User: Fold this.
Amino acid sequence: MPRRAPAPPPRPGPHDLLLSAEAIRAEHAHWADPIVDRSIFGTTSPPDIASVFESFCARELGSPIASARFYRVSVACVAGVTLEDGRPVVLKAQRATRREDYLRACAEFRAHLADQGFPCPRILAGPVRTGDAYLTAEDLLETGTLADAHDPPIRRSIAAALARIEHLARDFPSPERFGRSWFTGVPEGRTFPRPHTPLFDFERTAEGAEWIDALAAEARARRFSADSPRTIAHFDFRIEHLRFDGPRLVATYDWDSLHHEHPAVWIGTLAPHFTADWQRDTVVRAPTLDEMRAFVTDFESHRQAPFTSSERPLLSAAAVYAMAYTARCNHAERPAEEGWNGDLRPLLRAHARTLLDTGL
Assistant:
């Protein structure tokens, strides 16, 4: 016997919109200056930002916002909301400096994976240009729990998922729409790309970072060493963006860091970062060298193909370059303080030379 559909929640009024603004205001309290919001929306006013999300939902999803669940800022501004029609969705605003074709390709690739049972949310609307931002809406996956990638079964589950992505990507059309990663794609004459967020100013904090820049330049000089085919790769596939049921991966988030890249560059880039969670201070964010090596071995085991002798130098160089980029961000944030949770400068100092000389 069919059940009666539940009555929809009441239409949101000014107080409910204020609830969204309060969620934004609470996040802003964690920042000395909400510079990311300003770079995306052109304002830091919580009611004005809430209004942008409200208008987007009413126009593109056909339902206004009933209540706010969360608001988080990192590279993008992300809001979890419940719509008036009862749907829980995630709204994401990114700077319009990103290519619309790239964001659409990301949405299509998610659908491609989801159609084959991979646990990633589908895009419901967007990307839509609104002022200086691109907005998207996606399903809110609320399954699973947080985990720690230092736990070997969790690490192996992450590696298995990456091998599955590589396999499922093989028949996706026009993968070149995703472009190259920073390691291979940054123009000649530059070591690093423009920082991924306005929170970091590399030029202003160059003093004292010369050793980091030198290691990054040496690593990047090896970017032409492999002849392997490229794949579509998720370059931010780390524990913060994953949820688990026991050791089984059941949800994945943040699918806007896709590139068409050599698997060795992909896995080398993730090796120093797969343990990182910037929302939890209780998690040790950096892996050990042994954990990085185990992560690579796990990936090779699940894809049933080891990296070749021509790929190994590329793998190691990509790992050093990735550590150097994060170390450069760490230096820009706290140039005089080193060794805090998530600071990769100690890992880079200790192991970059070994990785470049003998490999990962």
Remarks:
- The radius of gyration is 21 Å.
